[in-house]
């Protein structure tokens, strides 16, 4: 019995050893296979990055090139995959939309097992087994300092004379934006702007500009747009669409015809410091200037800002001189701040910035005047009774009485600290300070009163506002779009 047990033990031990060896061999084989797959993937990534670089060089410089590598047998060209479109919305300020460019992209694809890599639009992308994707190397599209460059690289398949596994050649190149040439007959894509016949020119003004990409790597494109621009990124996964929309600033105001009462002047790209260089209006009377209450204001949520001019009676020119005084007032309020300023009485016959030419009856009002404003209740000056129908924010002015110092004059580097009641500061400094609080943009609206009456003929009046455009990460001011076609021949 002992001998039989001994034999059985040896057999069991031998069987165990065989099973263990089988398991070790299987695990080892799996590990070797995984290692080989990882090695092949790394090799493919390196070769696809090299191919990306060489196609980019061919597209922008030397027009022909070739490539050989261990991974080329798993490469192919898919010209039908993906497209890019550039659209300028509301470019004329009247709602019109212009399709600046609409081009196919195509791919050079590497596929091996569950590994998918693709060259598209100058970038290198990886598609995971779960359908998600990520960027291996960034595309040619780039945004920096309010400038977007969109080199549209369209890949097509075609035979090329070469002994290499992969050959490529740039077959065409054209400048899309800026561009002064006209479109092909019957083609509404490309210069000039359809509604205005304006050429494609920088800098860009008005509306928004959207770059839309259709790609199976749309989630990776979305992440790239989010990380490289300050624009609004939207994605439609069901259609593999991703878009980035950038704001284009309104055209600098400059010289303007005065809007009618209630009309607006749009101001974009205002610096968050003291932005304005000029702000002057030349008004013509609607009858005369007696009891004038005229101004311009901004109302954005809790933020209220009004520059207001008023005259005392009789408010008429007599024997070449103006009879009456002018006052300038400035009001600003937000959720935490309430501040009021006014000048002393100003004789328009002796002041250059706030003056009247009795020969033409032109009233010139410089909001950036070299005049003293006093931090004091506006109700202290003459003619403020029933302020509710004279100032657009008359109720706010009469409801709050100033007793303490200002609270907003530490927002800018040039600010000099807070002001106590009765302190004075130049009008140019105060007005510029409040424009610097408007978060970069404003609708400046005309008000003429008092009440429903009118003292200014806005249709005959004009003005000038100038300031350097300040652009943040959400703004696009300059656009450069090129279209390049590249033929790729993969022989494996």
Written account of the structure:
Pfam families: DUF7289 (PF23960), DUF7308 (PF23985). This is DUF7308 domain-containing protein. InterPro entries: DUF7289 (IPR055713), DUF7308 (IPR055732). By secondary structure, the protein is an alpha+beta fold. It has 2 domains: about 45-250 and about 475-490, no CATH class; about 255-465, no CATH class. The chain has 4 helices and 30 strands. It has helices at about 1-60, 220-230, 395-400, 425-435, and strands at about 65, 75-80, 85-90, 95-105, 105-110, 115-120, 125, 135, 140-145, 145-155, 165-175, 210-215, 230-235, 240-245, 255, 265-270, 280-285, 295-300, 305-310, 315-320, 320-325, 325-335, 340, 355, 360-365, 370-375, 425, 440-450, 460-465, 480-490. The strands form 6 sheets. It has an 8-stranded antiparallel β-sheet with strand order 16-28-18-19-22-23-26-27, covered by helices on one side.
Q: Biggest sheet, in brief? A: 8 strands, antiparallel
End-to-end Cα distance: 69 Å
Rg: 35 Å
Could you tell me the number of beta strands?
Answer: 30
Number of domains: 2
Strand order of the largest sheet: 16-28-18-19-22-23-26-27
Pfam families: DUF7289 (PF23960), DUF7308 (PF23985)
Domain DUF7308: 267-467
Region (Disordered): 170-191
Protein name: DUF7308 domain-containing protein
Give keywords:
492 residues; 8-stranded antiparallel β-sheet; 37% strand; alpha+beta; single chain; 5-stranded mixed β-sheet; elongated
């Amino acid at each position: 019995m002992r001998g039989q047990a001994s034999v059985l033990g040896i057999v069991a031990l031998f069987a165990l050893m065989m099973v263990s060896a089988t398991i070790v061999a299987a695990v080892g084989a799996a590990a070797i296979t995984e290692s080989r797959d990882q090695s092949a993937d790394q090799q493919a990534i390196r070769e696809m990055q090299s191919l990306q670089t060489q196609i980019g060089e061919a597209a922008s410089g030397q027009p022909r090139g070739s490539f050989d590598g261990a991974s080329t047998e798993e490469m192919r060209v898919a010209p039908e995959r993906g497209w890019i479109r550039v659209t300028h919305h509301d470019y004329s300020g009247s709602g019109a939309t212009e399709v600046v460019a609409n081009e196919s992209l195509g791919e050079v694809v590497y596929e091996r097992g569950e590994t998918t890599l693709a060259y598209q639009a100058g970038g290198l992308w990886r598609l995971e087994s779960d359908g998600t994707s990520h960027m291996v190397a960034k595309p040619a599209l780039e945004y920096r300092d309010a400038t977007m460059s969109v080199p549209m690289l369209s890949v097509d398949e075609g035979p090329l004379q070469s002994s290499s596994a992969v050959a490529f050649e740039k077959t065409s190149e054209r400048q899309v934006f800026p561009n002064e040439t006209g479109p092909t007959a019957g083609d509404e894509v490309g210069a000039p702007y359809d509604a205005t016949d304006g050429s494609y020119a920088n800098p860009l003004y008005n509306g928004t500009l959207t770059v839309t990409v259709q790609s199976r790597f749309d989630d990776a494109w979305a992440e790239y747009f989010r990380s490289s621009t300050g624009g609004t990124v939207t994605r439609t996964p069901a259609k593999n669409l991703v878009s980035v929309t950038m704001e284009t600033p309104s055209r600098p105001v400059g010289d303007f015809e005065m809007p009618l009462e209630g009309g607006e002047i749009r101001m974009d790209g205002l610096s968050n410091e003291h932005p304005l260089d000029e702000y002057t209006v030349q008004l013509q009377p609607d009858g005369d200037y007696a009891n004038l209450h005229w101004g311009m204001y901004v109302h954005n949520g809790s933020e209220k800002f009004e520059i207001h001019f008023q005259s005392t009676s009789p408010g008429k020119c007599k024997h070449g001189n103006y009879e009456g005084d002018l006052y300038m007032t400035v009001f600003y309020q937000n959720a935490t701040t309430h501040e009021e300023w006014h000048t002393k009485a100003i004789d328009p016959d002796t002041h250059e910035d706030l003056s009247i030419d009795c020969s033409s009856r032109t009233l010139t009002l410089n909001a950036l005047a070299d005049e003293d404003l006093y931090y004091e209740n506006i109700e202290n000056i003459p003619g403020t009774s029933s302020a509710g129908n004279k100032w657009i924010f008359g109720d706010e002015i009469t409801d709050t009485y100033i007793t303490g110092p200002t609270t907003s004059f530490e927002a800018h580097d040039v600010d000099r600290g807070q002001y106590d009641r009765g302190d004075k500061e130049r009008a140019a400094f105060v007005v510029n300070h409040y424009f610097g609080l408007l978060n970069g943009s404003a609708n400046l609206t005309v008000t003429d009163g008092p009440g429903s009456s009118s003292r200014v003929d806005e249709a005959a009046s004009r003005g000038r506002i100038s300031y350097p455009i300040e652009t943040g990460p959400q703004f696009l001011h300059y656009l450069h779009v090129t279209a390049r076609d590249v033929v790729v021949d993969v022989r494996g």
